[in-house]
């Protein structure tokens, strides 16, 4: 009898010629007392090795829930539909034990708030080393040595001393770097970063973004970068998808999205960005609010906030259509 081969252990030749991650028609729903909450509604995207996908949208649009689905961390009462394929393997077919081996090794995630991602009563070096003990079988001594190396790689000064510190003894920027080091400890092929710079000042934010790009150049990992901030995403994404009320409303390369935004929601997001070349008494805003995700709603979810919407927009849901340029948009008025 031959040895069992883990299809997720290393990329195959076939995997190298196909996208690393393929998400197809993903939907996520939760039962509530008021009805079904549809957090994510039929979204699709893919990421190739060495590339960065930016995912942007307002809070509650489904960005983080999509990431949790890829990680296999959707709460147990949630219903997940569609397909998630990683390195050619459909993750829906994995048992929980196999998913645990995958999570933290081939796929890793940086969470938004490092203080909640780190255990407050364990030194950061031990927490990083634990990942390598679990996924690489290193001894505690060898794992601690590698943890110090990783802390040095992510730019933490005096890494040996910092490895012995507890999370509360580190600055916000150092904590986030420690979380990145922990995510990289398993040598992931895909790194999901969920608002990793939101709580940091702009100087540290720029350093973290630069660090992620340097690590990507060095390791060839793919990155799914989630943010509500288009300005931050523009710094590192190759392609961007814009989500609204659980759906993808626009998808394009970063250059095309900023040069020719087609969806009224995307245009509104870009218009709200501060611009030093123009003087504004008040920054533009998008009027109204995100629709209730519970229950049904006919037509375009953005219609009530859209200056171009007509009666037809409130009847039919616009499909995500790809133009000849490769730019995709879900809007009946995109060419208007």
Q: Overview of this structure, please?
A:
The chain is an alpha/beta fold. Helix content is 31%, strand content 21%. The chain contains 12 helices and 12 strands. The strands form 2 sheets. Strands 6-7-8-3-9-10-12-11 form an 8-stranded mixed beta sheet, with helices on both faces. Strands 2-1-4-5 form a 4-stranded antiparallel beta sheet. Strand 11 (321-322) and strand 12 (328-329) form a beta hairpin.
Describe what is shown at a glance.
Helices cover 31% and strands 21% of the residues. It contains 12 helices and 12 strands.
Distance between the termini: 64 Å
Helix-strand pattern, N to C? HEEEHEEHEHHHHHEHEHEEHHEE
Mean pLDDT: 87
User: What amount of the residues lies in strands?
Assistant: 15-25%
As a whole number of angstroms, the C-alpha radius of gyration is: 21 Å
Strand order of the largest sheet: 6-7-8-3-9-10-12-11
Task: Classify the helix fraction into a percent range.
Answer: 25-40%
Compute the number of strand runs. Answer: 12
Structural class: alpha/beta
Count, helices: 12
Q: What does the secondary structure layout of this molecule look like, with pairings?
A:
Layout lengths: L12 H4 L4 E12 L2 E13 L4 E5 L6 H9 L7 E8 L2 E2 L5 H7 L4 E4 L3 H4 L6 H13 L3 H14 L5 H5 L8 H13 L5 E5 L7 H18 L2 E6 L2 H4 L5 E6 L2 E7 H6 L4 H8 L49 E2 L5 E2 L7
Parallel strand pairs: 3-8, 3-9, 6-7, 7-8
Antiparallel strand pairs: 1-2, 1-4, 4-5, 9-10, 10-12, 11-12
Helix pairs in contact: 5-6, 5-8, 6-8
